[in-house]
Amino acid sequence: MTGIREFDIEVRGMTCDHCERTVAKALAAVPGVVKVEAVSHKHASARISATGDASAARIERAVAKAGYTARVRVEQPAPTGPTVVAGSSDLAGPRVGDAHDYDLLIVGGGSAGFSAAIKGAELGFRVAMAEGGTLGGTCVNVGCVPSKTLIRAAEAQHRRVHHGFDGIAVTDGRPDWPTVRAAKDALVTELRDAKYWGVLRSYEAITLIEQRAEFTGGRAVRLADGTTITARKIVVTTGASAWAPPIPGLAAAGYLDNVTAMALEKLPASMLVIGASAVGLELAQMFCRLGVQITVLEAAPRVVPAEDPDVGDALGDYLRAEGLTVHAGVKIVSVARSDGHYRVSFKDGETVRHGDAEQLLVATGRRANTAGFGLEAAGVKLGRRGEIVVNAFLQTANPDIYAAGDVIGDPMFVYVAAYGGALAAENALIGNARKYDLSVVPKVTFTDPGVASVGFTADQARQAGIEPLVSKLPLEHVPRSLAARDTRGFVQLVADAATRKIIGGHVLAAEAGEMITEVALAIRFGLTIEDLTSMFHPYLTLSEGIKLAAQTFDKDVSKLSCCAT
Length: 565
Description:
By secondary structure, this protein is an alpha/beta fold. The protein has 4 domains: 5-76, Alpha-Beta Plaits; 104-241 and 368-430, FAD/NAD(P)-binding domain (3-Layer(bba) Sandwich); 250-363, FAD/NAD(P)-binding domain; 443-559, Enolase-like, domain 1. 29% of the residues lie in helices and 26% in strands. It is built from 16 helices and 25 strands. The strands form 6 sheets. Strands 5, 6, 7, 8, 9, 10 and 20 form a 7-stranded mixed beta sheet that branches. A 5-stranded antiparallel beta sheet has the order 21-22-25-24-23, sandwiched between helices. Helix 3 (111-122) packs parallel to helix 11 (414-430), helix 5 packs antiparallel against helix 6 and helix 5 packs parallel to helix 9. It is globular, with a radius of gyration of 28 Å. The N and C termini lie far apart (72 Å).
């Protein structure tokens, strides 16, 4: 037979003889494959003979669908055939020559970018990452890490005076803010070095380019120094930044965002906070506990407006009881600044009120970083808020460019960004095999009490055509909360009345975020009310509240003994 070519293939992920047989079966099914010469898990390799119908891309996709990772290292064509370079990949067909600098280029060096780069390296491809700013993106530098350590510091300050234990002395005093801030900065530096710079050093296949990249069309970008580089596939992970609404006078007056607020050199006496979603409330309570007089303004009828209404109403009351002034359902009229103080005018119903403070924090959301990257020149479509529009595989309007993380819009969570980055890289390099699935995404607001939720509220279930069952367990029925002298909040579960499967969970409690994963798993794997109630839950843990809430669908738990089923 003429026109036969031999392919030498690297196959990763095989561990046994069964793996060898699975890979051999997948290879034999590729159009054009004449014979599977050998498959070895010990040597992580395979060798086949095939006609011109087979291509490197088809071979790699077939093995990927079988659950393994393949890279064609050597292709030996007939004497008149093309030269093939190992280590490159082109999904359009056989790899002829090497016309690109990299297999995969990541534009952006945050969580999504790192996840994409690591996935590309694990799949055996040449990866470059271009980042002109601080490595690590929002979470480690100016988001999750610094805010949560400051929140814990503020909680420690708060507990000096506010706790429910008799016989434990209370002491008061102003915090040493410069020391607290310095400790926060040290933690950020430590984690950035360990989890970003350190990780890069462990992957030889990843090249870091410390320059901003701008698209010039197609699969090419121009770096800040004028150099142009090309890649077979590109993933955009440029993140998002704080956004402020067009309030009259705001731009002229100036304001703090979450980044500059956490970098203040000294604590102000007072602060106005516009926005009562997660970021606004977390920082508002933190600064209040550090001795700052706080006023929160929110346009929606209640705080954390994306959560179940019962959660927002209760949390607002708890924050007010702690000393924050919270106005919900208001409309900001104007912002002015004079003599080092801010005045915010707002309408509360038909009444115009005024808030005055030394500092103003605006926490009204984030917008994708897409301006100035030349995305339009590359054929990438943007949405109404500037986010990159992608399909179910995270592929943009340009089939060679993918995007992941905050740059594609909500939900802007670091764990979603990391998941999306890896998925985008895999789809770009191997072929669109995996869909972006956000059907079960838990979310947490790190206030005290905290808020955590996943899945449907009762109203959302009805809107989806599902008749809901709802249970609501006040924390006064959770022994752990009683022992901790903190019964603020509740656990609310939502189930499908027809199937009794759990479809939603909403927690307002101390450490609510530590409780929500069980509910997320229940939704993900279709667990029922009975599945939760029959599961062992250790006594005197907050997670026992999930079991008790499940029991509340059918029983009055106040009439049960400890751990009773």
